[in-house]
């Protein structure tokens, strides 16, 4: 909701959700919802659901930088994934990387490394188009622009690192005009780059051409896709927002749904 009048009563600053997942087939019906608190020291309340295992699980903060929906062995050793960890495919995407960086701001220290010119996708197509040349491992074709970006280093505070956060350091490339994260580099505990992110955006009053509900009264920047690639093995995960077969697509600060939409119960119900 644009402004939630109950924030002073609930302590919840924002609510988000992505469900039900449509593909790959192994994750169909799965989803994730999150509630962010305004109260100091209170962790985000985040739940994931797997329709295959019928398992609803609240994720601890340290697992929000772990790959979502699959068990895997990362550079830091074996880590537990979501959705039961029993799927036969791989995933590199982690919830803390949503929109480039979605971890709790106050859990990190920040340093401005400088400014630079960088190619970015700002006014692309929506829904985004899978790239045929590489078998769908990325998004193309898209319009690219040379943009001025701020390069910001985000390092997890010691108490977060002590909690075994999977990704302790990120370098964020933030568009100086639109204030969105166009790319990010993710580093492991040994200081080696582990994954890299490219975000794709559109500038429009709707996220899909046929939308009849999710229409803003003005044009805005919104993300259409994210490609997160593990540079150690070349495997990538593409997240489409909106989905390739979505009708209304994305709702952001529209009031089109109420706070009851962003609950574990609603996520489970939607998967049926």
> CATH topology, which one?
outer membrane lipoprotein receptor (LolB), chain A
Write down the overall geometry: globular
Which value, in Å, is the CA radius of gyration? 18 Å
The biggest beta sheet reads:
7 strands, antiparallel
User: What share of residues are in beta strands?
Assistant: 35-45%
Question: Can you characterise this structure?
Answer:
The structure is a single chain. The protein is mainly beta. The protein has a single domain, classed as Lipoprotein localisation LolA/LolB/LppX (outer membrane lipoprotein receptor (LolB), chain A, Clam), CATH 2.50.20. Helices cover 6% and strands 39% of the residues. It has three helices and 13 strands; from the N terminus they run αββββββββαβββββα. Strand 12 (215-230) and strand 13 (236-240) form a beta hairpin. The protein is globular. The protein starts with 6 loop residues before the first helix and ends with a helix. Residues 71-88 have low confidence and may be disordered.
Notable features of this structure?
272 residues; mainly beta; outer membrane lipoprotein receptor (LolB), chain A; 7-stranded antiparallel sheet; 4-stranded antiparallel sheet; 3 helices; 13 strands; 6% helix
């Amino acid at each position: 909701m644009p402004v939630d009048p109950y924030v002073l009563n609930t302590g919840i600053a924002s609510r988000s959700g992505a469900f039900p997942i449509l593909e790959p087939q192994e994750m169909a019906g799965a989803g994730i919802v999150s509630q962010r608190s305004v109260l100091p020291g209170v962790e985000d309340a985040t739940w994931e659901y797997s329709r295959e295992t019928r398992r609803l699980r609240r994720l601890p903060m340290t697992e929000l930088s772990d790959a979502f929906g699959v068990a895997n062995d990362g550079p830091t050793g074996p880590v537990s994934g979501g959705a039961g960890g029993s799927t036969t495919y791989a995933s590199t995407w982690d919830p803390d990387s949503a929109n480039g960086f979605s971890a709790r701001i106050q859990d990190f220290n920040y340093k401005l490394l400088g400014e630079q010119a960088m190619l970015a996708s700002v006014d692309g197509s929506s829904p985004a188009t899978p790239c045929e040349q590489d078998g769908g491992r990325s998004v193309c074709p898209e319009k690219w622009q040379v943009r001025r970006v701020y390069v910001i280093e985000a390092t997890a505070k010691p108490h977060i690192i002590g909690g075994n956060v999977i990704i302790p350091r990120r370098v964020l490339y933030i568009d100086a005009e639109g204030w969105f994260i166009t790319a990010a580099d993710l580093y492991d505990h040994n200081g080696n780059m582990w994954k890299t992110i490219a975000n794709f955006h559109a500038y429009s009053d709707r996220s899909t051409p046929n939308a009849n509900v999710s229409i803003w009264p003005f044009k805005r920047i919104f993300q259409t896709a994210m490609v997160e690639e593990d540079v150690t093995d070349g495997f990538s995960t593409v997240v489409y927002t909106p989905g390739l077969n979505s009708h209304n697509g994305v709702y952001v600060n529209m009031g089109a749904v109420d706070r009851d939409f962003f609950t574990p119960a609603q996520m489970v119900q939607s998967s049926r």
